[in-house]
Amino acid sequence: MACNSCSTGKDGQPKGCKNNGTCGTDSCNKLTVFDWLANMSLPNGEKPFNWIEVRFKNGRKNYYKNTENLTLSIGDVVATQAQSGHDIGMVTLAGELVRVQMKRKNISTEGDDILKIYRKASQKDIDIWQKARDKEESMKVKARQFAIDLKLQMKISDIEFQGDASKATFYYTADERVDFRELIKVFAREFRTRIEMKQVGFRQEAARLGGIGSCGRELCCSTWLTDFRSVSTSAARYQQLSLNPQKLAGQCGKLKCCLNYELDTYLDALKDFPKTDIKLKTEKGTAVCQKTDIFKGHMWYAYEGEWMNWHKITTAQANEIIEANKKNKKIASLEEYASDLIEDTKTEFENVVGQDSLTRFDSPKRYNKRKNNKSRNNRNRKNKRKPQKNKNEAK
Question: Is residue 394 pLDDT above 70, yes or no?
Fold first, then answer.
């Protein structure tokens, strides 16, 4: 249902690109939830949860009540209730796990705004929906040109038709507020359908479009990440990353969400480190922190005026010196502590893969003298057996 090769065919059956959800063109596995309760039976007397999760284009999901008690399974194409008309989507989750998802997203199962599933999509519904989907790319090119002609500071990133082709939703991004009233009139006159404009953020735009990140995998926001937390440059500073916007920014133009993944671990490790702006007072001079190694727990200090000479000490030693300074005591020098950290730089490699020695070809090849003598004798015998021509005949 996502990319052209994985979309539903004319007969209602999925085409299938045989890539098992990793096609990369439109992410067949966008925000997919594995139903780990599918093989478990309900206790006696318990009725199955009658809410269904339905996915639409580019990972847009919604939850609908199965009031008609239809027998639905993952992958079925269904016609669902919309604000006007009906929409077409694919069932992505059913059963008790839908209850968990709705509770996590704070979606109530009671109220007047409950949406329902009408029926399984017929062949006519699928044909109308497929024809509407085929128009989206050409419409997007025209829509962008109309926005440029009207000199609007906005970018139309995607278009999504409703399943019955009665409405088209235009998703756009903009830095400031845009007056698109004239643009809607142009769209309605050109495309002959109801128009809805929906502004999304830059992160949401990247999640809808999908893509491959610098790590070589599909974007987290388009595969599994559902909540977008704010990312600041302090996260990069704590992890000692260079503040290079080209490396820290993702495809959305904002800071990468993965900067927050290991931030808590770094913050826990930095609790044992003294602040880098605290100077160490020694009898030789005042030392200033130059560098820290969070993984090994080392810190480098240099005396004021001798910035080229760094002295490596541990965090425990740095804290010990700071405590001594608080008591108005000075140590002799940092060299006393740094001398204890002299390490052997010789690296020993071990054969951990079960491979042969890398120098096995360096030794000269040994020839078997016995074998060579045998082959030489055989050649001499062959030469003796050959008849020798008369010298006069040869002349």
Answer: no
The H or E element that residue 131 is part of is helix 123-149
**Of 121, 139, 169, which closes a domain?**
121
DSSP 36: T
Rounded-to-5 percentages of helix, strand, coil across the chain? 30, 20, 50
Q: Which residues pair with 177 in a beta bridge?
A: none
- Domain membership of residue 82 as a residue range: 51-121
Q: Is the predicted pLDDT of residue 143 greater than 90, yes or no? A: yes
How many domains does the chain contain in total? 2
- Cβ–Cβ under 8 Å, residues 222 and 210: yes
Give how far the C-alpha of residue 223 lies from the chain's centroid of Cα atoms, to the nearest Å: 7
The whole-model pTM stands at: 0.66
> Regarding predicted confidence, which is higher, 59 or 23?
59
Rounded Cα gap, residues 225 and 207, in angstroms: 9
Q: Are residues 114 and 146 in the same domain?
A: no
Higher local confidence (pLDDT), 295 or 30: 295
Q: CB under 8 Å, gap of 24 or more: what pairs does 308-312 form?
A: 311/287, 311/335, 311/337, 311/338, 312/338, 312/341
Does any domain span residue 87? yes
